[in-house]
């Protein structure tokens, strides 16, 4: 049999981890990436990477608790076996990255230092300064370079993935790609293709993601038969610096160290913020959440900032949504000591010193929770079966999805410092399964019988490209302006606070933009480094994903994760009478159970030939940890929690068994 | 914009951007002027985005959008390096307000000077990554199985390695280096990409690896496992195009956007090579 190859699309943490593991297993790999792999978006992650460690173990921590924090944080929307497997692997992954030379911060004794992150009680997060993502990415990049020097890996940087090559039996036999410089279109015959192309933040116009995070590789896979899971779940970070070109993250630690969020009570007050007296300032988080103040959980902070700007019209600026994040009341020396790094970012990009002038911030799209639907095979003890080729396979046999672009692991809301973990884990874990697939395959695409399939795929893409260039000038639409409009519509309709009438209107407008995007007039019709035509292709391919997000959000009539639908809110309990409170809590729990029965499901979008999505739903595997309500900031949370526990215990006693839950970990 | 620091001065209604354009490798370069409406808080990236959207020059002639490279826009990926008002730097942190303060009314953009221009502001920097390969800039681990933690490391040692590990291969240090000479080969008619790549590699043999790669060699020579092949890295740095090409101009350290102590790395590499040569001379 001719030599088998695997094509990996995307050179971030997931793609690189998968590439080096495949190489180690003796598989020849082609790695395709839009940008030089060292410039992938993984470089931007700052905070750290989670795992149970020797220190937290002694405080009672274990893999199960990391698993529980992850599914609780994700509002129980994840299938539990993959998450369980990931948290079991986490300590080994940190060790491996340590061996590969990542300069993790150290304790005075020379151990890896750890810090605490949101959503957990333990110091589980290993970090390398404020650039953990960059350091992890580089370590994997170096290993891949080593394999490349060995000849086991070929790297195609500056290539755009145009879609999978699928044979008559529906099996993926490779992909087509286009060189961003020469514009050459090529087929990449492969016996398996792994998509590791990251998130799709650019669909929202501006986000904290990089310019390559346009979702096009995912969309092109969807249009070839893959399906999309949980598209409507998009993580929005409460505090980012809105920029003309992109949004940049302003870490939660600014609020942790005493930063106060406010807006002037007079809309668009033109005065210097320092001249606005206290009485004329609206510290809306402190007023509405006296117990948590500026440190309400991420989703609540996001929702309130959004609300004060959009619904109450109190944005600091008239033409742009933003609120003040004020650190000016804190001593300069203290700011420098504790927040120097992030204040430097604000200074560098805004040219203003946040020690003197309140920062202007606004929530920004930050992470794509949904992604390509990917399969898994669970073991009896609730993990993943190693070396099984079905793990992370999409609906197209031989086409795999890993990293941010797959839909597993994060559920409705991502736990901080878990993203890096999920990317490296899926990359390493999926490789032996793919090897099994190759070993069991009777043929290889390198054989002559596949020549016409491979050639045909290439010429089809060449024709599409030519047609796009030829149509230039006829339609008159500007792709860059259409992209801005798409971003504006998505931001208006499908961010954190979601209303069905707004979503319906959004769908209509996005449909219209989609039609208009078919008539783009290219200002560059050349055949060399034509960024104009590549951008237009990416724009056109944003629409199927955008539509899946909108339709998914419209259908999901509940609040879950970070997404808030006011019409389906479940407010807290305000009765003062104990008996009445108890009765209300019972009613609340009934309602919660009914809601879960209907909505504790993954949304699966499939696409017709025009890229229109149809939704179906899949039950979530919650057999390891039964779902429970997330009660952050809810009035009467304690009584609801008590009632919920009583009911859970009663149900367990009735069943007479503890089920698959380990008793030692009962919550 | 309510920040008093930057509203103090009146801002121009418009400003010009001059871009040195080039259609393709080997084509002549020409300047093109664009006129943009002033917007507060913009940087060179948003300027280039605006130019792409309007695709017309200052005298209203239609033109192709300017080609440029960018990705993270947070100064960590290293993609958007170009020469802005004469200085090699990242476009994302080049703020329009600051640039106009230095040179009122006009911003000048040109591609990096030491790398082959592919189009407009896009250059081929693959040589940087080849240099990393030459100096074996990696930790030679046995495998990717579970073998426990890496070597223990002191805080002090981590603080030596961490800044070196922030190098994003952006190429500023190389563009500013008087000893780093441009190497350009062009594909022949009908040459396959593989053959071209092989010829490119060949053309780089003996060419200076530059400060970034020397510093990376030192990064890995400082790691517990990485140092096990320290001699191989030093051997590479002794070869033609290695450390001896450095003329100690110190331009590299002055332009590094990450303030990496490149000259310290170069000095350290010099000491290690000397010691290595002596050891070698005496057969260890």
UniProtKB/TrEMBL annotation, chain A:
Domain called FAD-dependent oxidoreductase 2 FAD-binding: residue spans: 6-420
Electron transport as UniProt keyword: yes
GO cellular-component term (any): plasma membrane
Obligatory cofactor(s): FAD
Keywords tagged on the record: Cell membrane, Electron transport, FAD, Flavoprotein, Membrane, Oxidoreductase, Transport
Highest taxon of source: Bacteria
Enzyme class of the recorded protein, top EC level: oxidoreductase
Gene3D superfamilies found in the cross-reference section: 3.10.20.820, FAD/NAD(P)-binding domain, Fumarate reductase/succinate dehydrogenase flavoprotein-like, C-terminal domain, Succinate dehydrogenase/fumarate reductase flavoprotein, catalytic domain
Record-annotated active site: 298 (proton acceptor)
EC id: 1.3.5.1
Name the record gives this protein: succinate dehydrogenase
Organism: Pirellulimonas nuda
UniProtKB/TrEMBL annotation, chain B:
Key words of the record: 2Fe-2S, 3Fe-4S, 4Fe-4S, Iron, Iron-sulfur, Metal-binding, Oxidoreductase, Tricarboxylic acid cycle
Annotated coiled-coil segments of the chain: none
Keyword Metal-binding attributed: yes
GO molecular function per UniProt: 2 iron, 2 sulfur cluster binding; 3 iron, 4 sulfur cluster binding; 4 iron, 4 sulfur cluster binding; electron transfer activity; metal ion binding; succinate dehydrogenase (quinone) activity
Names of required cofactors: [4Fe-4S] cluster; [2Fe-2S] cluster; [3Fe-4S] cluster
Alphabetized SUPFAM superfamilies for the sequence: 2Fe-2S ferredoxin-like (SSF54292), alpha-helical ferredoxin (SSF46548)
Signal peptide: none
InterPro entries: 2Fe-2S_ferredoxin-like_sf, 4Fe4S_Fe-S-bd, 4Fe4S_Fe_S_CS, Beta-grasp_dom_sf, Helical_ferredxn, SDH/FRD_Iron-Sulfur, Succ_DH/fum_Rdtase_Fe-S, Succ_DH/fum_Rdtase_N
Entry annotated with the keyword Iron-sulfur: yes
Broad class of enzyme this protein falls into: oxidoreductase
Domain (4Fe-4S ferredoxin-type): residue spans on this chain: 158-188
Enzyme Commission no: 1.3.5.1
A Pfam family matched in the record: Fer2_3
GO biological process, one term: tricarboxylic acid cycle
Top-level taxon in the UniProt lineage: Bacteria
Family stated for the protein in its record: Belongs to the succinate dehydrogenase/fumarate reductase iron-sulfur protein family.
Protein name: succinate dehydrogenase
Source organism: Pirellulimonas nuda
Gene name per UniProt: frdB
